[in-house]
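Hey all, quick one. A colleague (J.T.) asked me to put the magnesium ion job into the tracker so the inputs and the structure tokens live in one place instead of scattered across chat threads. No bug as far as I know, just bookkeeping. Sequence used:
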Amino acid sequence: QAKERGRNNFQVFSPVMDSKLKERVAIEASLRDALEKSRIEVHYQPLIDIETRRVVTLEALVRWKDPEEGYISPTRFIPIAEETGLIVPLGDFVLQRVISDMASWRKQGSVLVPVAVNVSAAQLQRASLRARIEELTRASDLSPSMLQIELTESAMFEQQDSRQDDSGTDEVSELRTLGVRVAIDDFGTGYSSLSYLKRWRVDCLKIDRSFIRDLVTDTNDHAIVAAILAMAQHLRIKVIAEGVETWSQLEALRRLGCRYAQGYLFAEPGSAARARDFLNGHRIGLPDVETDLLKVA
Ligand code: C2E
Ligand code: MG
Ligand code: MG
Ligand code: MG
């Protein structure tokens, strides 16, 4: 990557790079346009307590609805938004939408659960994130503790590098002081150093779905998940398994003592209206035959 080789180095553009660059520029322009034309939506996916089958958190997942292409996956546009700085207005839009959805769910009589928002490193490096969360939650009379931010391990490390200022404090600690919960997303796929778990208190670890996929058949994955659970238990950090799609994965997780899960087995991400159904005292409907699997041993 040209960027990695330093800004002052010249790069010879191959046709492949050229077409990638063109796609990047095109996506950047139409994403900017989409933000202005309100084609950005926020969907929600529940995180489930396996024991009680209750929804404990909703994860907000951004969606770009293009009139021609339909829904464009965030895996396609988030990296570009991060590179171009568009992630800042995009992230702010998501935050505003989440707060306003929570306010309207409450107004409609639903009991709220915390909502998890994915936050990129570039958003975290702007000290204004905390001020913005304070401002938006206060304006809607919501407690900041009803918000959780999901950070990847690399985002956690980048702020470690960038904000060692005189105050001796950093964004994550300040957000936690405000009451915002912090989750590590895609845990196990980033940096291998666990030192940040010592430096920052985090509330939960989300085990990346690449460890869950073959959990039942791959003894290495099984060992890794078991080790994460053991470590987190000692550190008193909650663990959520991502990407749970099958009953046998759920059963394996239950046996390992994993209490929380998220995945298509329970529910796919859905609109704010659908999310309200999850909130309304609704336990995730699991067929009777299978619920035995969920009984606490
Ligand atoms: P993530 O934060 O790890 O979110 C989980 C992703 O896994 C979501 O993909 C979700 O739809 C998908 N998923 C959930 N259950 C299952 C399952 O059982 N099987 C499989 N195969 N997938 C499952 P999505 O919505 O496409 O988002 C992809 C990524 O984009 C997110 O990964 C997150 O890193 C990023 N992202 C999404 N929304 C935002 C946002 O508002 N801001 C930022 N900065 N990043 C976002
Ligand atoms: Mg996430
Ligand atoms: Mg994840
Ligand atoms: Mg992910």
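Adding what we noticed when we looked at it: Residues 173 and 199 are 9 Å apart (CA to CA). Residues 286-297 have pLDDT under 50 and may be disordered.
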